[in-house]
Amino acid sequence: MAEADLENMKVEEYATQFFGFTPKSFCNGVYNAVNDYIMECMKAVETYLTEKCSDSLSEDQIETGTDLILHQYMDTFNRTFERFECYVLKNIFSIPSYILLNEDTPQMHQYTPQEESLLDAEIDDLKMKVWVLKGANAKLRNCLSEMEQSSKDVDLATVRLAALQDLMSKSGVSHPHESLQLTYENIEKGKKLIEKLVQESEEIAGPSL
């Protein structure tokens, strides 16, 4: 594609942004509308001649005559419309170079190398902060996981303690230290019983030789 064609495409795109439609489409719309009016007009002329001049003119003569008029009329209209289109595109739909669309306003400011360096430094700093935050978030997730596990352990211990308290309650023990004391006393009783049995066994066996 030629460079001139690319430039024309850019101009048309900018005009479309500015006006909300392409100037060429506007001209085509006007041409089609006028063309429709001409066709309707010539059809009305042909109908009128058929109704009023049927005695002196045949249908073929009327049709041939209206076609000739239409051809001459369209030839004149096309040449006139070409001049109209050139004038409209050049003087009405041309956008001056100083006109700037709102969305293109940021392009007016061009960054200097120093500003670009500062911007790059800010971007690098933000990247580092993001990296640090990701690390902190990972640690927080680990802590949260440990806390959840600790919470589960506490819940399990609570269930076991409740079961132990229920067991002690059924055994007539109201406090844990009483249970420990009772266990200790039972152990001492068992120990004394074993010592007594050993002593009796030795007495029955008699003195050793």
How do the helices and strands line up, and which of them pair or pack?
Layout lengths: L2 H17 L3 H30 L6 H34 L20 H58 L5 H30 L4
Protein name: Protein MIS12 homolog
Keywords: Cell cycle, Cell division, Centromere, Chromosome, Coiled coil, Kinetochore, Mitosis
Subcellular location: Chromosome, Centromere, Kinetochore
Provide the descriptors you would attach to this structure in a database record.
3 domains; mainly alpha; 209 residues
Low-confidence stretches are none
Task: Let me know the average pLDDT.
Answer: 78
Query: Per DSSP, what share of the residues sits in E-state strands of 2 or more residues?
Result: under 5%
CA gyration radius, whole angstroms: 53 Å
Count of helix runs: 5
Query: Share of helix among residues?
Result: over 70%
Question: From the helix content, strand content and strand pairing, which structural class follows?
Answer: mainly alpha
Distance between the termini: 129 Å
- Total beta strands: 0
Q: Tell me the domain tally.
A: 3
Biggest beta sheet summary? none
Q: What's the shape?
A: elongated
Q: What is the ordering of alpha helices and beta strands?
A: HHHHH
